[in-house]
Amino acid sequence: MNNITILYFSTWSFGGVYHMQPKCCILKTKIPYQKIHPTSSTMLAPDMVDGLLSGSHCAIAGVSIKGLFALLVLTLLLPPGAMTSSKPITCHKTCLCASNIVSCSKMNLTGIPMALPRYTAVLDLSFNQISKLKAEWTPVKLSKLHSLLLSHNGLTFLSSEAFLYVTWLRYLDLSSNGLKILEEFIFEPLEHLEVLLLYNNHISQIDRTAFSGLNSLQKLYLSQNQVKRFPLELVKERNRLEKLTLLDVSTNRVKLLPIQELQVLPAWIKNGLYFHNNPLPCSCELYSMLARWHLQELSSATDFRDDHTCLLPGTQKEKVLTLELNKVHLNCSAVTIIAEEAYLEQVLNLGCDTRQRDVLKSWVLPGNVQVTSGNQSARVLSDGSLQIGPLTLEDSGVYTCYAVGDSLNETLYVTVEVHNTTQAGGHEGMKTAYTTLVGCLASAVMVLIYLYLTPCRCFCCSSQGLDKRALGGSLHSSTVSVSPTHEDTGPEGGGGGGGAFDKPPFNRHVAFPDPKGLIEQNGRLSPCGEEEEEWQEEDRGKQGQRRKSDVESLSSVCSDTPIVV
């Protein structure tokens, strides 16, 4: 037999005053304890109660023993802590309510209160002991809820369906908890979310799709975690979140930065890209990137200048300031802003890379000339950049971009230097140089051929009946070509006697005259003088064909026309 003790109160009225007296009774039952334990799978039928309670020594006036027992069973079947962790919300007791704001902060809650008002817009559950955010934490859709605060709760688990009924959230604070992993598509239902706070957790693994679907996200805080990989997919072109203007991955365990990809990002993204206090290795590439951001006065570089550190190579891993690498440690080259260089007839686009997105941009040309729609050589494009060209030397100077925004106004100066040459001028110069070189080589080859490869058949001179002395006299001759084009068909050559079709031998001589005894003729020196008379005396009596050939050779020397070989 098991005894069940029941405590109840008896009330009565006497003289208009109500009195209450506590009473106690003991129910004797044969029901084993495990039969009514919450974990038991055996349930008692109502008609079994009378028989099992027949040995009871307790009688309560006006109260059915069967009803008392049913109430007792229901009480035992409730899960432990259900009456304290998920109480129906009661303003001024469980939480504080101010219009559409429900604040349950610091109430020592282990679960989210049930029956939240549908008009709730801000729900503050911070500084409690809520360790899990389950799918059924709210059974109804809270379409007006735009801010949910769950910081400082020791939260370690997020259900993949935890945000199905709060899709209109714009602000979600999960900071200062115990989260370790962000699973795939965990935040996908929150398409209207603008700010997500995840700093000061233990996050070491982030799935590449964890932030998919957050098309309205503007600020993401991931600092003070254990992240080892920089989430480039969030800011890289074609994959990035279009409205993201702030990404904080500072104070993590990132050891490698995609420097080349970060350098080409727009200034309005780099302005909100925080990566200080990470164990990055020192390099001149890292210094160059950070120095340029500092010259552009980007907030991510100027606000935390002393927190941008890196580790020097070596076993000790000494930590130094990144912006001081050019002075002592790595001797990196100093970074300066270089002016735009252009060439004549070139079309140039000048960007107005501002720290703020969606600002109104206007340009002023050198000489303080405002760019208007009627300007033929300069016009403002749809993205705010300035297109100028075809360029002339007068286009050199300082161009000014004025950017006007809601919270920030900027002025950017771009210096343009136009060179006095076309962009293809250098290539044409190279072509001219190559042409000159080829010409020089060809000339050298021709000279070598002239000196060493010219055929000289002096043995033909004796057969011609010429005296070597006549050829070696005052005229120093050089035979260019002595090869006859046809065989001599004259009588001396054994051919058929000197007919009309007989061709004389084809001989040409180039003579270099001796300057002694030259006779001036029409302002030029003529080799024709005594040598001509001597030549005629020696050849007198020779055949007309031979004399004709010699005369032709001499006439070629004495002639004013070029020698034909």
Automatic annotation (TrEMBL):
<keyword id="KW-0325">Glycoprotein</keyword>
<keyword id="KW-0393">Immunoglobulin domain</keyword>
<keyword id="KW-0130">Cell adhesion</keyword>
<keyword id="KW-0433">Leucine-rich repeat</keyword>
<feature type="compositionally biased region" description="Basic and acidic residues">
    <location>
        <begin position="538"/>
        <end position="551"/>
    </location>
</feature>
<keyword id="KW-1015">Disulfide bond</keyword>
<keyword id="KW-0472">Membrane</keyword>
<dbReference type="Pfam" id="PF13855">
    <property type="entry name" value="LRR_8"/>
</dbReference>
<dbReference type="GO" id="GO:0007155">
    <property type="term" value="P:cell adhesion"/>
</dbReference>
<keyword id="KW-0812">Transmembrane</keyword>
<dbReference type="InterPro" id="IPR001611">
    <property type="entry name" value="Leu-rich_rpt"/>
</dbReference>
<keyword id="KW-1133">Transmembrane helix</keyword>
<dbReference type="InterPro" id="IPR013783">
    <property type="entry name" value="Ig-like_fold"/>
</dbReference>
<dbReference type="InterPro" id="IPR036179">
    <property type="entry name" value="Ig-like_dom_sf"/>
</dbReference>
<keyword id="KW-0677">Repeat</keyword>
<dbReference type="InterPro" id="IPR007110">
    <property type="entry name" value="Ig-like_dom"/>
</dbReference>
<protein>
    <submittedName>
        <fullName>Adhesion molecule with Ig like domain 1</fullName>
    </submittedName>
</protein>
<feature type="compositionally biased region" description="Polar residues">
    <location>
        <begin position="475"/>
        <end position="484"/>
    </location>
</feature>
<feature type="compositionally biased region" description="Gly residues">
    <location>
        <begin position="491"/>
        <end position="500"/>
    </location>
</feature>
<dbReference type="InterPro" id="IPR003599">
    <property type="entry name" value="Ig_sub"/>
</dbReference>
<feature type="region of interest" description="Disordered">
    <location>
        <begin position="474"/>
        <end position="565"/>
    </location>
</feature>
<dbReference type="InterPro" id="IPR031283">
    <property type="entry name" value="AMIGO"/>
</dbReference>
<dbReference type="InterPro" id="IPR032675">
    <property type="entry name" value="LRR_dom_sf"/>
</dbReference>
<feature type="transmembrane region" description="Helical">
    <location>
        <begin position="433"/>
        <end position="453"/>
    </location>
</feature>
<dbReference type="GO" id="GO:0016020">
    <property type="term" value="C:membrane"/>
</dbReference>
<keyword id="KW-0732">Signal</keyword>
<comment type="similarity">
    <text>Belongs to the immunoglobulin superfamily. AMIGO family.</text>
</comment>
<feature type="domain" description="Ig-like">
    <location>
        <begin position="345"/>
        <end position="417"/>
    </location>
</feature>
<dbReference type="InterPro" id="IPR003591">
    <property type="entry name" value="Leu-rich_rpt_typical-subtyp"/>
</dbReference>
<dbReference type="GO" id="GO:0007420">
    <property type="term" value="P:brain development"/>
</dbReference>
